[in-house]
Amino acid sequence: MNGAQSLIRTLVGSGVEVCFANPGTSEMHFVAALDAVPEMRGVLALFEGVVTGAADGYARMADRPAATLLHLGPGMANGMANLHNARRAHTPIVNVIGDHAVYHKGFDAPLESDIDALNGWTHGWNRTSTDTASVGQDAADAVAAAMTAPGRIANLVLPADVSWGDGGEVAEPVAPPVPVPVEAERVRAIADIARSGESTVVLLGAGATREQGLLAASRIAAATGVKVFVETFPARLERGAGLPAFDRLGYLAEQVQWQLTDVKHLVLVGAKAPVSFFAYPGKPSELTPDGCEIHVLADLGEDTAKALADLAEAVAPDTAPVLQDPVRPEMPTGELTPQNWAPVIGALLPENAIISDEANTSGLMIPMTTVGAPRHDLLTLTGGAIGQGLPVAVGAAVACPDRPVVCLQSDGSAMYTISALWTMARENLNVTTVILNNRAYAILRMELMRVGAEGAGPAANSLLDLAKPDMDFVKVAEGMGVPATRATTAEELAEQFAKALAEPGPHLIDAIVPSLI
Amino acid sequence: MNGAQSLIRTLVGSGVEVCFANPGTSEMHFVAALDAVPEMRGVLALFEGVVTGAADGYARMADRPAATLLHLGPGMANGMANLHNARRAHTPIVNVIGDHAVYHKGFDAPLESDIDALNGWTHGWNRTSTDTASVGQDAADAVAAAMTAPGRIANLVLPADVSWGDGGEVAEPVAPPVPVPVEAERVRAIADIARSGESTVVLLGAGATREQGLLAASRIAAATGVKVFVETFPARLERGAGLPAFDRLGYLAEQVQWQLTDVKHLVLVGAKAPVSFFAYPGKPSELTPDGCEIHVLADLGEDTAKALADLAEAVAPDTAPVLQDPVRPEMPTGELTPQNWAPVIGALLPENAIISDEANTSGLMIPMTTVGAPRHDLLTLTGGAIGQGLPVAVGAAVACPDRPVVCLQSDGSAMYTISALWTMARENLNVTTVILNNRAYAILRMELMRVGAEGAGPAANSLLDLAKPDMDFVKVAEGMGVPATRATTAEELAEQFAKALAEPGPHLIDAIVPSLI
C-alpha cells in the first residue's frame, strides 16, 4: 500500500468520506488512490476557493470534516480566503496540501513556496508528513485535531514521494479530546446574575446556536427576563417555526449599540464580546456599553451546550421554552425592490431547507421574513471574506443530499467563486441560487459614506459600480451547466423559485433588485 | 491632505499611474482619493487574482509597476497565486494592502489576520505605514523597492486610520539602485569558454529575452557556435520576424535532457540551471547533464543585457545577428485538432501583437507556428500557478492600448480567474481570447501517466475531466459582457479570429479542440 492509499483509508476510517479537490501533478498518486478506496467521494471544483468553502459548508452541516486536496502553495493560497471564513466559523476541515517530493524541494522549482507560512495563517494544526509509514497516523491525528472543540483547520502537507512511497499503514481513528466542562461554580455565578433583575444579555455563539442550546436559552430567558441574542454571523443557526427565535446582533456598530443599550451584564456563550466590524473615524471599536460587565458562561473549546443546559436547569427547571409560531409573509407583488424579494423567499421556503446567506445589503429583510418559515438551518458569512455563499451551498448540499439548499447570493460576492455553479451541475446538487443582482458593491456605497471619506466622486463611485457591463447571470450559469432564469418582478421570482425547488438539481435565478443605496 | 491622497500623489509622481483594485471598507479613503488625483487610473476587477495578475501583465509590458489595492488579509490571500507567478517573473508590483485602523487591530474583528505572514510569502519588500506623515515616503520607497533589479513585489500595508488621517506629505521619487555591473573578468572567462569549441549552451532569462539581449546572444552564437536557449517560461520574450529566434527549454524533463545532450558548459544569463518542474519517481531533479560545468555570466539583479552586449563585443565584434525571416504557416482546414489550431494563430497574428500564453498542453505547437509571424511579445506562465493568462492579458492591454493582445487560454486554467473577462469588457480592452476547450485537465492526464500512479480508474479520471457538464464559454463570456463565438473548424477559427482582431474591444472564441491525450 502506498502512502496515498494509507492516507485515504485512514481518513475514511476516521469518518472523513468526502474530499473536495483541485489536484495537480504532485497529487496524482492521491488521485489514483481514490479508485482503491471507493468509500471516499472525490468532488472536483475548478478553483480552490470553491474547494475550501465547500469543505466549510459540508462540515457545518455534517458535524464532521471533509478533506480537501490542494496543489502546493499556490493552490493553498487560492483556498485561503474561505479558510479564513472557516476559521471564524470554527469549522473542522482536513486540508491535504500536496507538495514536491522531499528531495526535490531544495531545487526551487517553479511551484516551490513556503507552504508553512500559509498554513500558519489559518491558526490551525499543522504537520508535514515525512515518512510513508506514518502518513496514516498523520491523517488520524489531523482528523482529531480538526474535531477538537470548537473545531479547527488541520493542514497536512503531503510530499509527493511520501505519497507514492510503499509501506503505508492505515491508522486507527484518534478520538478528539472531550470539550472542557464548565465548572458548576461558574454556572451558579451566572445564574445569580440572570436572576438579579439587572439588564442582562446572553450572547450565543459557537455550539450554542443549535436546537439544544436555543431551547435552553429560551427557557432561561422566559424564567429570568434576560435578553438573548445570537452573534452577528453564526456558522449555523437552527431557526424557524417550532424553535426559539432570537435576533442576531447587527452588522453595523450603531445597531449593536442600540441592541445593547443600558445592558449591565453581557454573558458570553461560545461568543466574543462584540466589536465593530471595521473601524470608523471617531467611533469606538468595542460595542459593549460603558459600565457593562462581561461574563463568560462558556468559552470556545468548552462545552457550551452543556453549560447552557446546566444554567437552564438552575434558573428555569420548570419553564418551557418559547417557540416561534409558523407564520409566512404575505406574497408581495410588483417590480422587485430591496424590500419585496425577501418575503417571496419567506413565503416559499420549503421544509427542512438550508440557507447559505451571502445576500449582504440585499438580505437585510431575510431574518424577518423567514423567522416563521418551516424549520431550517442558516449558514452565514462568518469571516467577512466574500465569495463564500456559493461554495458553502455546494458543501451543504453534498452533506445533506435530501435537503433543499437555498443560496441567497449578492452579485459582487458571487464573482469570487462563481465556478461553484459548475460543481453544482457536475454533482447535480439540489441548490437553488438566487442572485441579488443590484449591479453594485452596494455595501461599499454605504461604507463610503459611513467612513466619512471626503471628495469621493465619479472615480471613486466607478470602483463600487458593477454595471458597465451588467452581469448576465443567466448566461453565466447556463455556461456552467446550471439552468437559469431571470426575475424582475415578485411574481416572476415566486414562480421561478417554486419551480426550481420542485425540480431536482441546481437552478439559478438572476433577480434584478435595485440597490438599497 | 490625508494619507491616502499623499500616497496616490506620490505613486503618480514615481511613475505608477494605474491601480488595479478590488477594494473594501478599509480602503474607502484610498478610493475616495482617486477623485483628487485624476492622473491615477483605477481599474476595477471582481477578484483579487485578476488584480494581481493584471498588475503582472501591466508591468511586464510597461517596464514600470502598477499598484494594486487589496482588502486586508483575505484580499491579499486571493491575489497570492498570481503574485507567485509575478515573483517568478521578477515583475515589479506595488501592492497596497488595506488594513484595519491601528487601534482596531487588537480587537480581532472578523477580517483580522496575519497580513505579514502573507506578505512574507511573496519574498518581496514589506512595510506597514504607521504614520500619516510618512505614507508618502513609504510609497516612494515601495516603488523603488519594486524597481530594484530584476524587479520584485513591494507590499505596503495601509491601516485605515493612517489613510484617513490628516497631514499626508507627498514624497519625491526614490531612484532604485543601479543594477550591479558584471565585472570584465567574468565576461572574459565566459568569452574563453564560448571560443573553446566545447559544446556550450547559453541560457537566457530575466533581462536577456528582449531585443537587445537577443541580438547580442545571436551574434555570440553566430561567431562561436554556442547554442542559445531561452528559459522555459520567460516573463516576456520578444520574437517573430526580424528578431533572433531561439528555442525555449522544454517543460518536460525529458525534453530538457534531450536539448542539453552532451553539453559541457551551461552559461546562465539571468536564468537558473534547469530543474524538473515536478519530481517523478526514479527521475532526476537536476537536468544539467553529468559533467557539464555551470557558469554565470550575469545573475538576477545584475545587468544581464549589458553583460551580453559586452560578451558579444568580446567574441563577435564584427558578426551580425541571425534574424528570423518572415514566414507564415499554411492555413489549415477541417475540424479543429490539437495540431491545426495553432497554425491559424500563426497565419493571422497581427503586427505588434502581445500573446498571453496559458494554452498549456494545447499550445505545444504555438512556438513553431508563430516563429516567423510579425514581431510580437510573448508572456508566459512563469510560476506554474494556473489562472494567469486572462489577468495578464488585461494588464498588457491596459499598458499597451494600441497593441492587439491575444490570449491563448486553456479551459481549466481559465476558470480560476474567469471574471477577468468582465474587466476586459468594462475597460473595452483590445484582447482576443481563444479558449482551447478540450474539456479536460489534459496536462494532468499526461502527468497521471508520467508519475506512474498505479490503479487509476474512473474515480481518478473523473477528477481530471472537465466535461459533465461541458463548459460553454460563449455564454460565460457574453454573461460578462464580452462578445463571443464558437469555432469547431479551422476555417471558423480563422474567420472569427480575423474578425475579432479587426474590431476594437474584447472578444472571445470558444475553440472546441480535442484533448491531445
TrEMBL record, chains A, B:
Q: Report if keyword Electron transport is assigned.
A: no
Q: Which Pfam families match?
A: TPP_enzyme_C, TPP_enzyme_N
The record places domain Thiamine pyrophosphate enzyme N-terminal TPP-binding at 1-108
Which GO terms fall under molecular function for this chain's record?
acetolactate synthase activity; flavin adenine dinucleotide binding; magnesium ion binding; thiamine pyrophosphate binding
Transmembrane intervals: none
**Thiamine pyrophosphate enzyme TPP-binding domain location:** 373-510
| Superkingdom, natural source | Bacteria
Q: Which family does it belong to?
A: Belongs to the TPP enzyme family.
Q: What is this protein called?
A: Acetolactate synthase-1/2/3 large subunit
Provenance organism = Actinokineospora iranica
Ranked from the top, the taxonomy reads: Bacteria, Bacillati, Actinomycetota, Actinomycetes, Pseudonocardiales
